[in-house]
Amino acid sequence: MDPKGFYLYWINQSKETEFLDIATIRDTRAGKYAKLPKHPKVRNVFNMDFPDSHHLAKALTIVTGPDTVNLTYHNFFAAKEVAQVAYFINVILKMFPADKKRVEAALAAANLPKGKVCFDTIKPDVFTEAAFKTFILHLCPRPEINEIFTSFTKGKGFMTKEMLTKFLNEKQRDSRLNEELFPLVRPEQVKNLIEKYEPIFAAAGQISPEGLMFYLMGSETSVVKLDKLAQSHDMTQPIPHYFIKSSHNTYLTAGQLTGVSSPEMYRQCLLAGCRCLELDCWKGKPPDEEPIITHGFTMTTEILFKDVIEAIAESAFKTSKYPVVLSFENHVDSVKQQEKMAHYCRTIFGDALLVDLLEKYPLKPGHPMPSPSELMGKILIKNKKSSTPASKPDQAKKASSPEQANEAADTSESNQAADPNQPAPANPEANDREEHDDHDEQDEEKMKNSDEGTAGQEVTAYEEMSALVNYVQPNKFISFENAAKKNKSFVISSFVETKGESLIAKNAVDWVEYNKRQMSRIYPKGTRVDSSNYSPQPFWTAGCQFVALNYQTMDFPMQLNMALFEFNGRTGYLLKHDVVRRSDKKFDPFTDRIDTIIASTLTIKIYSGQFLSDKHVKTGVEVELIGLPKDPKRKYRTKWSTTPNGINPEWNEEPFVFEKILLPEMAYLRLVVQEEGGKFLGHRIIPLDALQTGFQHICLRSESNMPLTLPSVFVHIEVKDYIPAAFAGTDLHTYRHMLSLNATSNNLSVIVFC
């Protein structure tokens, strides 16, 4: 914990101090991307209209907000090219209004001022690390840590170096680790920990309960394995081998029927690491005839296509350098306006737009897709591609090569079978015309109330737009057999969530195989008018790459999505697990046993909470596991804390056990803290294979997955290999050996366990 301030402050023109919570900063924009004053008087004050004013070097915009929708823009314009920024400790009493006496007592114990004067400050040379620790000890006592300490030392007031070594090796260490590859804690390491955290007995080589508490709050006990968080995935495999962070109807800030559209949503999604954005493109009205983006046949507002392209160009590679896919739902049945769209893409994106194929990756059956590394810094367009580019809506050129003729046949076949459960139309050409014609009111009403919405009503690209489409070519899904026969890695199919759920229930194994070769995009059903989301987990277990969600709604599915993509450097790309990539073995998400993988058992004991609420309230913790269909589904809850106490409530109940987690690398622990009555206080979702075992403080997140500065839950976590009842009492290494022999006898690749 850091005694430094949580607030940025500045002095405004009225000589008033204004504060900004640093934890809410989402973006900073300088130069041409900053918001500049438009009022003539303001521009005149700063000589902005003079050539030598250097006004771009003086402009700064800080964007803050709790999520991607509710944003505030703090616009600064400095008199000089260098603006001074400082950190400030806001009045601590305001952080805990319900426990003013406790805060004052803690400040007094640390010999700190009580802040009775408005904006009273604490000088840095007074608010030392030692003073901060004393303040925390008195503000948030930790009797549960004292009990743990006493039980391990058998009543002694200190731990010797040998006792602490035993504690670290027995209580904090993952019992599954091989001692030769991962040696036990060495005396020198223990000595360093004592010197770092012990405030009293360090010279004697001992540690007190306070020292142990500070150790358990330190970086060595991060609940997320730091090496896992820092790990970089192999980015040289074909793109279908990755999960890709994806957004649905990216332009919307609220509901699907009357929500406001905004180019800012594209910036925010990209800054959050999103790599696939959706653009619903419609024909603009005279006289400008500028293409627009909106949700068709609804009352959502319209924004200019050009403004969106500019927003994407600005933020595309700020967070991640890996490729961005723009998923066009194109309803612009105008050659002129499609030409405008193509022109904006070419001129605004410039060299970032991938137009020409990579020499190693021709668009031919059996050839793989390029890797994210090979497409780094590139923007790819996903749009219906015409195999016979047309200069007019009703006139198509004849195919000039056998390859174009084959592509035309594929398109004709896909148009005939938009839904494999429905009979194909008698006249394919008539069906194609119907997609391009204006819809009557009955058709519009049907689209608004259907699962697919307007997604199946796009027009095919004319020549200029079609030329921009290469490695991500959308095609109607016919069947898994047909896709395997075509063997085109560059063809992608989109599935509404309800269709996807049906495929998982009936053809899960086939879909996993399909996703090893080419890509799937999943999107919410059209009847989710409140912009709610479906659970992405079932589609990840089937290997689907683009699982698109409504980013304006921070519900549980979005929280799970944000938690998953925190890894691999927040690049928006995650290498899929071996079982959904390897070509030599099929994977069934509904299996109750994976031959080459040892299942796990997770045990978690909830001890206490810290700084959960600024009110006198009872609190409780809910714990669940998200994983494969046959993983444990039970949801555990603690009792409500015995007394109203938002600062340091205790539970100390029996541990919660999740037995036989089949694929730990695709399972997640979810923990939610609530007030009595159900009000959300904080949550955390962590992949099981990233969990650090032992005593841990789980720092909580807001509903929009923003880190909360102080709230945490103190737990003990244990993850062990699951051994079936039939092998109870069998030595762990013997059981692993038996599993390996069984895998070998089935001609399977054997995983080497540590």
Describe the structure.
With 754 residues, the protein is an alpha+beta fold. Helix content is 27%, strand content 19%. The chain contains 20 helices and 25 strands. The strands form 6 sheets. It has a 6-stranded mixed sheet with strand order 13-14-15-16-7-17. The protein has a 5-stranded mixed sheet with strand order 10-9-8-11-12. A 4-stranded antiparallel sheet has the order 21-18-25-24, with no helix packed on it. Strand 1 and strand 2 form a beta hairpin. The protein is globular, with a radius of gyration of 29 Å. Its EC number is 3.1.4.11. One of its GO terms (molecular function) is phosphatidylinositol-4,5-bisphosphate phospholipase C activity. One of its GO terms (cellular component) is cytoplasm. Keywords: Hydrolase, Lipid degradation, Lipid metabolism, Transducer. It comes from Cyprinus carpio (Common carp).
Question: Would you summarize the structure shown here?
Answer:
The protein is globular. The protein contains 20 helices and 25 strands. By secondary structure, it is an alpha+beta fold.
- Strand proportion, as a percent range, falls in 15-25%
- How far apart are the first and last residues' alpha carbons, in Å? 34 Å
Helix content: 25-40%
Mean pLDDT: 82
Shape verdict? globular
